[in-house]
Amino acid sequence: MDPIAIVFMLIAIVVVWGGMAASLVHLMKNPDHLSGDEGATDAS
Amino acid sequence: MSTQTALPQGGKARREQFATRWAFILAAVGSAVGLGNIWRFPYVAYENGGGAFIVPYLVALLTAGIPLLFFDYAIGHRFKGSPPMAFRRLSKWTESIGWWQVGICFVIGVYYAAIIAYAAMYTWFSTHEAWGDDPEAFFFGDYLQVADTFAPSFQFVPGVFWPMLVVWLILLVVLGAGVRKGIAMASMIGIPVLFVMFIALVVVALFLPGAPEGLNALFTPNWSVLTDPQVWIAAYGQIFFSLSVGFGIMITYSSYLKRRTNLTGSGLMVGFTNSSFEILCGIGVFSALGFMAQANGVEVADVVANGIGLAFVAFPTIISQAPAGVLIGVLFFASLVFAGFTSLISILEVVVSAVKDKIGWSRWTTVIVVVGLSGVVSLLLFSTTTGINTLDVTDAFANNFGIVGAALVAVVVVSWLLRRLDNMVGHLNTVSSFRVGRVYKVLVAVILPIVLAYMWISDIVLKAQDGYGDMPSWFVGTFGWGMSIALIIVAILLSLLPWSDRSALNRELNDNLRPDSESGDEPLVGSAPGVRSTPASHGRHTDTPSHPENPEKGA
After folding, report:
1. How far, in Å, CA of B526 to CA of B534, rounded?
2. What is the rounded end-to-end Cα distance, in angstroms, of chain B?
């Protein structure tokens, strides 16, 4: 593969799959009952 | 068998629910990940800048795809209903928008089953390369037995009819089993299997000779195209059609969520997972196309294809020529079957849910009637020697006229005519971790209508001027324009029918709204960002309101 194609394949993978991983982490850190305005109220 | 559970308070029934948010996320991913990911994205990316396409693609995902996903979630979750019921609760004048979306799902569902049947048969054909030396002649001639005329025939093609019948029977069982035991279970099995199969396919494809040339073709950026508006429209179109947004699926699925569900957090997961699978599809498909180009001594550009041409002509050629071709074939076509089937489940569930809500039948009764009728129409139109032409034109119009038009009307009506976008934002922020605000409202109320209107109008103008393909005008007029306009008329007529006493509108609990507030103007929660809930909702850690029928008792 050409270097430029490798770079852009990696960018696509890192950005999109990274977005998925970040979404997963965010979701794990925010359980349903503690999310949103109601969750903040319940947690306090 | 009714899956509704009566509540002691007030005699109202509880709507079916996904057991966990992960079941919902897998079902939503199962809906979003479909044939378009596998056979449309790689081609669109290649044709619109290659590696540079990632820029408009991500912009479209973040500014249109995910905002529209949140919009559907907000309507479905807040108003707890299939599209007609959710829009009816939003305003009694907007029920027809919901029925329009239901009609689109019905049309897509009846032809989608045919493609799954093709893929299922090709999974078997791959084991012995049944297409011989000429996959194109085999597909259109030997397999589909395509007629010379366009007028619908009733000459059934056994190789299409029987697998389609099996698809409809499985669909009957899955949808009849309900949200938890049917829809969620199918996705919890189907999606992991699909991902494992497709990853295996990508690994095999990456080791094919010529794969690097294929990936060069896909990922080498062509920056000059980024100034072309059509490339940006292509990116928005890909995101829009890929995410299963705007035609009722996400409204229906989110209506089955518990009241306390992190909507935006789940939506981000669904959106990025769908796109992640698309990137994987691009790598797998272009590795295989690179091999095909090398094996035939031509450029990758000469073998690039999409849709049915990619799946049923190009891939059989690759399978015949590649080492481990049988393995590639089985993995590829089985992936199409799994991706297609989990999407078909979600498409037909919109119709089932809408009929069930309006008439008040039990799930099994509704499924037998809806899936039975859909199956008969599907088999009559698409398992015959003229099925592929009818499929082609209905697909083009259902997507570009139907889905885009219905989504455009929905966002304009909610944002500008009813001015209820603040309510939607408030609802999202009441239960979700990823907050939305002014930027989100601008995206939904301004950017989305502009993009959708451009896509809708430009496609109408194009088809009005040039027709569709080489098809005769009467055929396009009947199955394209006629079908599209008929869906709108039928939607209006269905919205005029009264809701029976047994309907979900009158029998099901909506724990987001006060019981006397059918229009949703008096929410229990989420009227605006920062507005607190009533005492009934305070201190709850479960999704079950303490006094859903009478919030005053909860104080």
Report:
1. 10
2. 36
Token code pair at residue A41: 């109220």
**A4, A29, A35: best to mutate for the B interface, most B CBs within 10 A:** A35
The three-state secondary structure class of B508 is strand
- The answer to whether the Cβ–Cβ distance between A5 and B541 falls below 8 Å is no
Number of A/B CB contacts below 8 angstroms equals 130
DSSP B40: T
Which two structure tokens, joined as six digits, stand for A14?
């890192």
Nearest CA in chain B to A27: B265
Instruction: Report pLDDT digits (tens) over B418-471.
Output: 999 999 999 999 999 999 999 999 999 999 999 999 999 999 999 999 888 889
Of the CATH numbers 2.60.40.1120, 3.40.50.12780, 1.20.1740.10, 1.10.3720.10, which one belongs to the domain with range B18-496?
1.20.1740.10
Q: By the 8 A CB rule, do A38 and B431 touch?
A: yes
| Three-class DSSP category at B5 | strand
Provide the shortest C-alpha distance from residue A21 to chain B (in Å).
8
Do the beta carbons of residue B354 and residue B84 sit within 8 Å? yes
The tens digit of pLDDT for each residue in B111-144 reads 999 999 999 999 999 999 999 999 999 999 999 9
Q: CA nearest B531 in A: which residue?
A: A37
Chain A positions in Cβ-Cβ contact with residue B532 (cut-off 8 Å): 37, 41
Collect all residues with Cβ–Cβ distance below 8 Å to B269 and sequence separation of at least 6: A20, A23, A24, A27, B25
Interface residues of A toward B, Cβ cutoff 8 Å, are 1-2, 4-9, 11-13, 15-17, 19-20, 22-24, 26-27, 29-33, 35-39, 41-42
Give the whole-angstrom CA distance, residue B540 versus residue A43: 10
CA distance B33 to B424: 26
In sequence order, the 6+-apart residues with CB closer than 8 A to the CB of B276 are A16, A17, A19, A20
Chain B neighbors of A2, CB-CB under 8 A: 216, 220
